Backbone:
């Protein structure tokens, strides 16, 4: 009797909601996708996310939008920029520091507030203006360094924003693709407290965050009013679960507790495949290199030695070591990159050529070259650093390069990367093994080798300085036509490869393991991904 | 008894202070910048300096310690560098989860360990003793994280009977769904204390049964069960002490066990704090755990004194 009454009551409650959903035109039939993240905590929910690329991927571009976004629709070609909350942008022909961004009309935040130019200025103040009431140190720490070009900004009208850069800088759209727009109205409604906003955030993105337990779980539902109808999520719900331990992630997938895991440990992949799960991967802009010291006493100053080292590594062998989950490096960018160009130096395995170059440089069986290499035993994106570095050590030994490792913990490694090759902490190391996010002109090329960014003023770890390279970087910043800028990028990358400026080893392939129930996922060649097309069978 | 308790309480104060100094210094002497986790990877030197000043990390260590301790005694353990949330909130939530796990593991470990130890001690040098001690030694010797992984492979991945990770969705509830999450980590965590308690009990029971007063009790014609009552009374203080230490171990959670099972307790929190170099979180968690140990020791000492008057007199 009681059961019957309850059932009737639940129908009475559920029916109006069911009708409302039907009226909205969105079919809630996509199921629930549970993702096991590699992060130890739910990324910062207020807008500008932490936890690196994963935070931006899973909490950033889901709940929020940026003015400029990445085209994540295709798996077959490298992603380019597309309009987001800005429908178009252009630089002033007479003053190349002045940019105008036209904003998309009719966009609303999850709390119902309209998105306007005031919101863009308010969000930039949130990151850059320390005396603004909405300034948030945590978001600023994540966002400020992404937009180094921005000098000032102002509202022109409700749907137009002007941004002035410190110097002409054509990479501004790439920089702005990092900056996510939070709701001003929500911040005010939550007592102007970011801590309160964190519990119930509001963006304009395709997903709404509905529940959130720190370190344990976050739940999102579709924003059925999303401005891009093609990207209204098909799932009913997406659940994020932090699972930092790789074996725990694999076990969670194989026991059916989650449907999707990021970055399965390579040694668990055979078991995952054997159990019938799907592994998806694709080229993406992430490389695994040795960044070389170019201080006066570094043996890497000799181009013959740099080329020889690049020719001494059997990358196919390393691919076997990694269960096939890597793309052998042919340059600093992956071979499929739109910026790869046509370098004349072919990065490949040719031991004879490598030995000949070393002999030419004055080394041989009787005269070994000795170098120290800074490596870490683990770290975000570092793949399997210990066996991979030992593999390189053995490969270089064949061409009379004796490598001693300086092994430091990952966080210390980041500090030493920031500090640069001259820092006493590197203990005389002449290279640092670091994986790089290389998705845009600045992170891909400029930051590593620009003279003005020599560490600790920037992340030119090796203190490389070349007027010709600086000229190319300047050209990238001053070429405002995207196609022409791509051409300069290609020429710059050709110089990276032809001068063998790094020990270029592998590109990661962003493997993800998932249940066969997951349908409709298209893995873009990008750090960020589109979850809107996914359904659960 | 009150004077004994007050005297023991007085001893606790310098110990707690020493513990606070050690845990504060321990996390500062490790290399690396504690703000790495929260700073953009390519933050400039000026941005790094500003951030350090904002977190008070630019001050001399003694000043930092005094400020930290002053706030800690008022219950303010600062804010986590990585998450920005109050450390006290994070630790309280984790302690609740670890207590739950420790409680479940204790329910298994102490009765089973005690029973096995009594059996082995009573039948000393028999095949029962050898069998029990083999089990106990295996329990202590097997790496328990390995056992955890094996249990996950069997019961979660292969059989699909029990969840492999987490404490269940939402807040804890005494329902089947949440209890099922508790089973594997509790068993894994209980294995070491079972071995330790069994071995200790076996040694104690064996020793006491060989004492003259036990022979005298038998000679007086007491029934074995009456003799056992005397033996238990003599075993209890040391047994309690061992269990107290084990309870501390269980609450601290083995970092590895909580990591293997993604159990959101203090061990898991500690491991995340270490990997993120989250100094306030690390200090707060260690401090709370250390104070728990100190309090637990006090409670065990007082309980021992209550059971055995000789301890109080000494």
Residues:
């Amino acid at each position: 009797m009681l059961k019957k009454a309850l059932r009737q009551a639940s129908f009475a409650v559920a029916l109006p909601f069911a009708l409302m959903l039907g009226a909205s035109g969105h079919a809630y039939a996509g199921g629930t996708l549970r993702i096991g993240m590699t992060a130890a905590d739910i990324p910062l929910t207020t807008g500008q996310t932490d936890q690196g690329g994963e935070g931006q991927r899973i909490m950033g571009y889901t709940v929020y939008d940026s003015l400029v976004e990445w085209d994540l629709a295709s798996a077959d070609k490298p992603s380019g920029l597309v309009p987001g909350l800005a429908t178009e942008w252009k630089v002033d022909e007479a003053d190349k520091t002045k940019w105008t961004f036209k904003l998309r009309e009719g966009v609303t935040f999850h709390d119902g507030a309209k998105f306007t130019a005031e919101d863009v200025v308010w969000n930039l103040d949130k990151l850059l203006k320390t005396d603004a009431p909405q300034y948030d140190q945590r978001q600023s720490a994540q966002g400020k360094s992404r937009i180094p070009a921005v000098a000032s900004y102002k509202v022109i009208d409700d749907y137009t924003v002007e941004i002035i850069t410190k110097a002409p800088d054509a990479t501004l759209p790439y920089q702005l693709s990092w900056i996510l727009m939070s709701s001003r109205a929500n911040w005010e409604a939550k007592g102007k407290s970011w801590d309160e906003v964190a519990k119930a955030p509001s963006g304009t993105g395709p997903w709404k965050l509905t529940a959130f337990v720190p370190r344990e779980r976050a739940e999102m539902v579709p924003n059925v009013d999303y401005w891009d109808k093609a990207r209204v999520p098909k799932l009913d719900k997406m659940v994020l679960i932090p699972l930092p331990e790789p074996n725990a992630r694999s076990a969670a997938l194989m026991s059916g507790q989650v449907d999707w895991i990021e970055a399965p440990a390579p040694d668990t992949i055979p078991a995952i495949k054997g159990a019938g799960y799907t592994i998806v991967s694709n080229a993406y802009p992430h490389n695994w290199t040795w960044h070389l010291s170019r201080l006066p006493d570094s043996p890497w100053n000799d181009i013959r030695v740099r080329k020889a080292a690049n020719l001494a590594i059997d990358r196919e062998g390393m691919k076997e070591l990694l269960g096939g989950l890597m793309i052998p490096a042919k340059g600093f960018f992956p071979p499929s990159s739109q910026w790869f160009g046509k370098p004349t130096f072919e990065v490949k395995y040719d031991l004879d050529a490598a030995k000949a170059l070393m002999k030419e440089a004055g080394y041989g069986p009787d005269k070994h070259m000795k170098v120290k290499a800074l490596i870490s035993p683990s770290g975000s994106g570092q793949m399997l650093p210990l066996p991979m570095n030992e593999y390189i050590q053995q490969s270089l030994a064949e061409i009379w390069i004796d490598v001693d490792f300086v092994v430091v913990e990952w966080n210390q490694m980041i500090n030493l990367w920031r500090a640069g090759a001259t820092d006493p902490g590197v203990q005389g190391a002449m290279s640092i093994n670091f994986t790089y996010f290389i998705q845009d002109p600045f992170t891909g090329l400029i930051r590593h080798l620009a003279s003005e960014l020599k560490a600790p003023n920037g992340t030119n770890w090796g203190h490389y300085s070349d007027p010709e390279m600086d000229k190319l970087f300047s050209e990238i910043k001053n070429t405002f036509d995207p196609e022409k800028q791509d051409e300069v990028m290609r020429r710059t990358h050709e110089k990276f490869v032809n001068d063998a400026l790094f020990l270029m080893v592998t590109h990661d392939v962003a493997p993800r393991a998932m249940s066969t129930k997951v349908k409709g996922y298209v893995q873009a060649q990008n750090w960020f991904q589109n979850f809107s097309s996914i359904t659960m069978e | 008894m009150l004077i004994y308790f007050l005297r023991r309480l007085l001893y606790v104060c310098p110990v707690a202070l020493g513990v606070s100094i050690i845990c504060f210094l321990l996390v500062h002497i490790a290399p690396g910048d504690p703000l790495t986790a929260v700073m953009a990877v390519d933050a400039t030197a000026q941005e790094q300096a500003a951030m350090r000043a904002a977190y008070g990390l630019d001050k001399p260590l003694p000043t930092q310690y005094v400020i930290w301790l002053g706030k800690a005694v008022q219950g303010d353990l600062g804010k986590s560098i990585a998450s920005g949330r109050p450390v006290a909130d994070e630790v309280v939530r984790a302690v609740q989860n670890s207590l739950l796990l420790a409680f479940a593991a204790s329910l298994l470990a102490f009765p089973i360990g005690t029973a096995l130890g009594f059996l082995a001690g009573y039948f000393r040098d028999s095949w029962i003793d050898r069998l029990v001690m083999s089990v106990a030694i295996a329990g202590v010797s097997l790496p328990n994280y390995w056992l955890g992984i094996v249990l996950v492979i069997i019961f979660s991945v292969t059989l699909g009977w029990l969840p492999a990770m987490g404490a269940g969705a939402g807040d804890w509830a005494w329902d089947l769904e949440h209890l099922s999450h508790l089973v594997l980590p509790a068993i894994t965590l209980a294995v070491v204390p079972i071995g330790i308690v069994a071995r200790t009990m076996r040694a104690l029971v064996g020793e006491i049964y060989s004492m003259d007063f036990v022979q005298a009790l038998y000679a007086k014609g007491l029934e074995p069960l009456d003799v056992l009552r005397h033996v238990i009374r003599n075993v209890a203080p040391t047994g309690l002490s061992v269990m107290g230490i084990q309870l501390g171990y269980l609450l601290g959670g083995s970092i590895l066990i909580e990591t293997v099972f993604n159990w959101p307790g203090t061990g898991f929190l500690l491991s995340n704090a270490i990997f993120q170099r989250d100094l306030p979180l690390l200090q707060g968690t260690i401090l709370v755990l250390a104070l728990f140990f100190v309090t637990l020791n006090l409670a065990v000492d007082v309980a021992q004194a209550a059971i055995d008057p000789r301890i109080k007199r000494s």
